[in-house]
Design a protein that fits this description.
Blueprint: E1 5-10, H1 11-22, E2 25-28, H2 35-46, E3 58-61, H3 65-77, E4 82-86, H4 88-103, E5 109-114, H5 129-133, E6 140-143, H6 147-164, E7 168-173, E8 181-186, H7 189-195, H8 198-206, H9 226-231, H10 234-255, E9 262-266, E10 272-276, H11 280-294, E11 299-304, E12 306-308, H12 312-318, E13 325-330, H13 341-350, E14 358-363, H14 373-383, E15 391-394, E16 404-405, E17 419-426, H15 431-445, E18 449-456, E19 464-472, E20 485-490, E21 505-514, H16 519-525, H17 528-536, E22 540-544, H18 546-553, H19 560-571, H20 576-590, H21 596-611, E23 614-616, H22 645-659, E24 694-698, H23 708-712, E25 718-723, H24 725-729, E26 738-739, E27 748-753, H25 763-767, E28 775-779, H26 786-795, H27 808-811, H28 830-840, E29 844-848, H29 852-855, E30 875-877, H30 884-915, H31 922-933, H32 941-957, H33 965-972, E31 982-988, H34 989-995, H35 997-1005, E32 1011-1016, H36 1051-1056, E33 1062-1066, H37 1072-1084, E34 1089-1094, H38 1109-1118, E35 1125-1127, E36 1139-1141, H39 1150-1155, H40 1158-1161, H41 1169-1195
Parallel strand pairs: 2-3, 2-4, 4-5, 5-7, 6-7, 10-11, 10-13, 13-14, 14-15, 15-16, 17-20, 20-21, 21-22, 29-30, 29-31, 31-32, 32-34, 33-34
Antiparallel strand pairs: 1-8, 6-12, 8-18, 9-11, 17-19, 18-19, 22-23, 24-28, 25-27, 26-27, 33-35, 35-36
Catalytic activity: 2 oxidized [2Fe-2S]-[ferredoxin] + pyruvate + CoA = 2 reduced [2Fe-2S]-[ferredoxin] + acetyl-CoA + CO2 + H(+)
Cofactor: [4Fe-4S] cluster
Domain 4Fe-4S ferredoxin-type: 694-723, 749-780
Length: 1209
């Protein structure tokens, strides 16, 4: 048995390690949670790592998963071993090619981090619905249940694919296995090479397409032979299992494992047996161990490895003859089917067999629903009943169809000497990264077994993260969340008011609280529920002010390293000096690319974390704390005024429960009103996340009332208010105001911040143009009255906008219909969306591509799009990633079709009224005529719709109209369509430049009146920062580990070639007025429009952070990195050049601009100074070429005859 190397990795890296060895070409495309596999392969290739063929893997990122699959098809048909990595919708996009690949028996391998398919909603989390959708393609399917198996089964998969020349899917649970970190054993490359059947590879290459021995694949066949030819593969599939089994035996011989097609685990005389595949098998094994040791029942598990082909005889042989009942667990749902897929296969295996066991089946774990030993115990208890439920669900409360099995008993199956820890953090505070280092330090430098798993909410940076870590002498088989912790850490002080973090902490456990409070302050501020639980559970409390330490060191909000050091001091997993030495080593490695200064700061943070930890004595009196109101009860909702009953029901019955991290307890009945995926808008205003320690404070005497602070605010938390003297007199506090300037000089003026919603990005402070800043960042502890001021001002009756909303200052007196989203602090995308809603929000239809903007735009229960006092606001939907343009186009066509019908019905009505001698007055006729003439015009559409509605209802009230009441009613049934809908198709560059480009191009080519807003972050932001065709030359990103080699795609110039599409490129921080003009002109243009908005992103790693996002946009234009223009085809009607270059000739320092962002400055850590200068020069050259093309276009009509500029009459 070979001595194997030990590595601490997650499931994705484990699978990638095996895949790299056997892969020659990898066609890749990012999708969560599989993207890290592709990124590892790309990094290793760029680093020069060789596969078993002594080459680096040729890695190519495609425009979509469909494109990646086609690359595999072409590569394999030409004789090379090809691999990809995917999940969910990505796998579905590959299915057409997969049928072809399987039909041609090509040894292609897909590694799938199995993930939910979007149905009523999108979820990035794990189940088997994607794999099950692909089970008919002809690919073999091999399942893994753990990080170790992800490696071992990946090896078996590649070996089997090569040997049998058949395509395989190797799959494991998305997130639960793909992102779980464990220490595993791997084989050497020499060993892997020795396992490969070289004759099989030679035969595969001999069959490849070559002009030296020409052959045809992909013919067209008619019905006379297709059926017979399709059946010719039967023998190949019948022997495939033997090949897989043989390869498993080779691995077993090397590793000491006992992998089988179907592995049995449990009592040899078991009467109750579960059949399952994936990570749940680890939970079942652990539960069986616990229960069998207690002698409670004779229990067993059959773990399915090879799911396709599904070998009936092998399954039956694995099950003890003593088995009376089988329970089959499926991690998918097939609505309308009698049973789920695995259960159907098991039933088929026993069909007609004598003494077959009773077979029941159920669903579990959809979208990574946590399934624990308590659920497995509930299942075994159900199986023990004389007549168990034939269908069931686990880990939910189904109070509608009553399929669920309730948890009736809690069992702790954790092995002795296992330490369980839970870390509550905030996205972007570094908690997750620190814990990944922690687990590697312990895994790589001790004899302890380790496990780490990370949970995230759907918000971007600033959202909740939970890190679950376990360490123990024995192997850890617990693929579920920590529910009985020895240690709990809280990185955000405000969490004690929101979450019951002590609920899962053991008696006598340790609680580390990062807080600005002193020990004396705890008595005053700590919620009574926390005090009582700390005392009753005899918890050891530790306090540290990591905020202060990080700020003093220069790390700003990054408290992770301080808290990581404090953990090691408390947990004593390693001796303190040794732990500090390892921390120093890993910090130097982790932050090397960010420079010596960052490394030094983190080293100082480690020392401070060890030195500044304060143990707190728990007063005995806390045992008797009185829980006497909302201020003392953790997570008690801050009840507010709701706009309607629907909103109240949703907030009280769902949102507030979810926001306390108790959503798992919600029953099925709670979602009956929302079964179609429909949710009320505007719920973020009730959330009040309180994630900021500082917020802007307004200084009235310094303010020039420009409203630019509100214009650029990414979260709509800062707004101008106009206040009457009467309203000011009734204010709950002495409101500081300024006298309003013209044309609103009858009002008092105030800039107000919602401090409880602020993310402390400080973009407003940096943008403020006043000679003396009118905004300064201040501690929230010094502004406790601000939430009350915000609530009061927000409750005042809305004022009519005293200015034009199409100018910067005036636009901010309009209500934003997009507020308090979960986007990153300082996000470069959201200011554009917010302003767009201020212009058109009360008449908007939005189709949003999957990506950052869909996640922060619709992360239940936080819906930031909202309604006004009239109940109007943006209607929003998301279909998929790739089809956003087509989906939005369909929405537009629906409105257009109904409006055309209304026009026809109005003509019929006029004739009908004439026939009844009910002649319309001139004013009445004018109302109908105006509506018909301007039904496609946005300006004034609400007023025209209201007039038409009133007219029809008044006419219907006339007794003579009774004869044509049906016609009136038919028209009025369409009154929702009287308003011209402003259709906006919104998405990022990954959608517009890559996966959705074909659809976008076609929709724009139709000439129809749709608007497209592309939020160009120049990277796939939502999936972790992969390169797109919008990524510029030299930028380092995932899938471009060495820096992007090619120039950025010029989407705007390509679309301009149509000649009839409005196109604009904007950057708010560079020119706010141009941004507004472009958005307004795009909407006014009666045809398709495309607006491309430069959007700085956290993935750019801007020095100083996203507080400078607006400044970065300005510098990008000044340096010539980004350019502003508008192409308006309507200008041709006036004899003018349709193209206007709005940015001046670049004069900024291009290299300095690039080096201000980590995605470019990291080049200096990878290449020589000469090579870096060459890359910068190349990037500058590409940018200059773009500018020159725009300059030529701005002058190309100067010498054209005037009559050429006018369209034909």
């Amino acid at each position: 048995m070979e001595k194997r190397q030990q590595v601490t990795v997650d499931g994705n890296q484990a699978a990638a390690l095996a895949a790299y060895a056997f892969t020659e070409v990898a066609g890749i495309y990012p999708i969560t949670p599989s993207s890290p596999m592709a990124d590892w392969v790309d990094k290793w290739s760029k680093q020069g790592k060789e596969n078993i063929f002594r080459q680096t893997v040729n890695v190519i990122e495609m425009q979509s998963e469909g494109g990646a699959a086609a690359v595999l098809h072409g590569a394999a048909s030409s004789g090379v071993l090809a691999t990809t990595f995917t999940a969910s919708q990505g796998l579905l996009l590959m299915i057409p090619d997969m049928f072809k690949i399987a039909g041609e028996m090509l040894p292609v391998v897909l590694h799938v981090a199995a993930r939910t398919i979007a149905t009523h909603a999108l979820s990035i989390f794990g189940d088997h619905s994607d794999v099950m959708a692909a089970r008919t393609t002809g690919f073999a399917l091999l399942a893994s249940s753990s990080v170790q198996e992800a490696y071992d089964m990946a090896v078996v998969t590649h070996l089997s694919a090569i040997k049998h020349s058949m395509p395989f899917i190797h799959f494991f649970d998305g997130f639960r296995t793909s992102h779980e970190i464990q220490r595993i054993s791997i084989l050497s490359d020499e060993t892997l090479k020795s396992l490969v059947d070289k004759d099989a590879i030679n035969k595969f290459r001999e069959r490849a397409l070559t002009p030296n021995k020409p052959v045809l694949y992909g013919s067209n066949q008619n019905g006379d032979i297709f059926f017979q030819a399709r059946e010719a593969c039967n023998m190949t599939y019948q022997t495939l299992a033997d090949t897989v089994e043989a390869k498993m035996q080779r691995i077993n011989a090397l590793t000491g494992n006992n992998y089988q097609l179907f592995n049995y685990y449990g009592d040899s005389q078991a009467e109750l047996v579960i059949v399952a595949m994936g990570s749940i098998c680890e939970t079942i094994k652990e539960t069986i161990n616990y229960l069998n040791k207690q002698g409670r029942q004779k229990l067993g598990l059959v773990q399915v490895h090879l799911y396709r082909p599904f070998v009936h005889a092998k399954l039956r042989a694995a099950i003890p003859t003593s088995c009376r009942k089988l329970a089959v667990l499926d991690r998918t749902k097939e609505p309308g089917a009698n049973n789920e897929p695995l259960k159907l296969d098991v039933i088929a295996a026993f069909n007609g067999m004598p003494d077959a066991p009773l077979i029941i089946g159920g669903r579990y774990g959809l979208a990574s629903k946590d399934t624990t030993p308590d659920d497995i115990l509930a299942l075994f208890n159900e199986m023990a009943k004389p007549e168990p439920k034939p269908e069931f669900t686990l880990a939910i409360n189904d109070d509608v169809t009553h399929l669920s099995l309730p948890r009736t008993e809690h069992i702790d199956t954790t092995l002795p000497n296992t330490i369980s820890c839970r870390f509550w953090g905030m996205g972007s505070d570094g908690t997750v990264g620190a814990n990944k280092n922690t687990i590697k330090i312990i895994g790589d430098n001790t004899d302890l077994n380790v496990q780490a798993y990370f949970s995230y909410d759907s918000k971007k940076s600033g959202g909740l993260t939970i890190s679950d870590l376990r360490f123990g002498k024995e192997p850890i088989h617990q693929p579920y969340l920590v529910n009985s912790a020895d240690f709990v850490s809280c990185s955000q002080q405000s969490y004690v008011f929101k979450y019951d973090m002590l609920d899962d902490l053991k008696e006598g456990g340790s609680f580390l609280l990062n807080s600005i409070w002193t020990a004396d302050d705890l008595e005053r501020f700590l919620p009574a529920a926390y005090k009582q639980k700390l005392a009753l559970k005899k918890i050891k409390l530790y306090l540290i002010d990591a905020y202060k330490i990080a700020k003093e060191i220069g790390l700003d909000k990054r408290t992770n390293t301080v808290l990581q050091a404090a953990f090691f001091k408390i947990a004593q997993v390693l001796p303190a000096e040794l732990a500090q030495a390892y921390l120093n080593k890993y910090v130097a490695k982790t932050y090397a690319l960010k420079g010596e200064e960052i490394v030094s700061m983190n080293l100082a943070a480690i020392a401070a974390g060890f030195a500044n930890l304060e143990p707190i004595a728990i007063p005995e009196a806390w045992e008797n704390c009185k829980l006497d109101g909302t201020s003392n009860n953790v997570g008690t909702p801050n009840w507010q005024t709701y706009s309607d009953q629907e909103e109240a029901d949703f907030m009280q019955n769902i949102a507030e429960i979810m926001n306390r991290q108790k959503g798992d307890k919600l029953p099925v009945s709670a979602f009956m009103p929302y079964m179609r995926g429909n949710f009320p808008q505007g719920t973020t205003k009730h959330e009040k996340r309180e994630i900021a320690l500082q917020a802007p404070r307004w200084i009235a005497e310094n303010c020039i009332q420009c409203n630019q602070c509100a214009f650029v605010c990414p979260h709509s938390v800062i707004r101008p208010f106009l206040i009457t003297d009467e309203e000011l007199a009734k204010a709950p506090y002495d409101l500081e105001t300024a006298q309003g300037t013209r044309p609103y000089n009858d009002y008092k003026f105030r800039i107000q911040v919602s401090t409880l919603d602020c993310t402390s990005c400080a973009a407003c402070v940096e943008t403020c143009p006043a000679p003396k800043k009118a905004l300064v960042m201040d501690d929230l502890t010094r502004m406790p009255e601000e939430p009350t001021k915000w609530n009061y001002l927000s409750s005042l009756p809305p004022k009519a906008n005293p200015m034009k909303p199409t100018v910067v200052k005036g636009s901010q007196f309009n209500k934003p219909y997009f507020e308090f989203s979960g986007a990153c602090a300082g996000c470069g995308e959201t200011p554009y969306i917010k302003v767009l809603t201020q212009l058109f929000g009360d008449k908007m239809l939005i189709s949003n591509a999957t990506g950052c903007s869909s996640i922060y735009g619709a992360a239940v229960p936080s819906q930031p799009y909202c309604k006004d006092s009239c109940g109007r606001g943006p209607a929003w939907t998301n279909s998929l990633f790739e089809d956003n343009a087509e989906n939005g186009f369909g929405m537009y066509l629906a409105g257009k079709q109904i409006q055309l019908r209304i026009t026809k019905l109005l003509d019929e009505l006029k004739q009908a009224l004439t026939n009844l001698n009910m002649e319309l007055t001139e004013a009445e006729q004018a109302i109908i005529d105006e509506w018909q003439a301007k039904m496609t015009v946005t300006d004034g559409t609400l007023e025209r719709a209201a007039k038409l509605t009133d007219l029809l209802q008044n006419l219907l009230a006339n007794s003579q109209a009774t004869a044509i009441q049906g016609l009136f009613n038919e028209i009025l049934n369409y009154k929702d369509y009287f308003t011209k809908r402003s259709t906006w198709i919104i998405g990022g560059d990954g959608w517009a430049y890559d996966i959705g480009y074909g659809g976008l191009d076609h929709v724009l080519s139709t000439g129809e009146n749709v608007n497209v807003l592309v939020l160009d972050t120049e990277v796939y932001s939502n999936t972790g920062g992969q390169a797109s065709k919008a990524t510029p030359t030299g930028a380092i990103a995932q899938f471009a580990a060495g820096g992007k080699a090619m120039a950025k795609k010029d989407l705007g110039m390509m679309v301009m070639n149509y000649g009839y599409v409005y196109v604009a490129q904007i950057a708010m921080g560079a020119n706010q007025s141009q941004t507004l003009k472009a958005l307004v002109e795009a909407e006014q243009y009666d045809g398709p429009s495309l607006v491309i908005a430069y959007s700085p992103c956290i993935e750019h790693q801007i020095k100083g952070g996203l507080r400078y996002s607006q400044q970065i946009e300005k510098e990008a234009v000044e340096a010539g990195y980004w350019h502003l223009y508008r192409y308006d085809p309507m200008r041709l009607n006036k004899g003018k050049n349709p193209f206007q270059l709005d940015s001046k000739q670049p004069k900024g320092d291009f290299a300095s601009f690039m080096m201000n962002e980590g995605r470019f400055s990291a080049l200096t850590k990878k290449y020589s100074e000469d090579e870096v200068q060459r890359i910068i020069a190349q990037a500058k050259f590409h940018a200059e070429q773009r500018y020159l093309s725009y300059l030529r276009k701005s002058k190309e009509y100067e010498t054209v005859p005037a009559d050429f500029l006018h369209p034909a009459n």
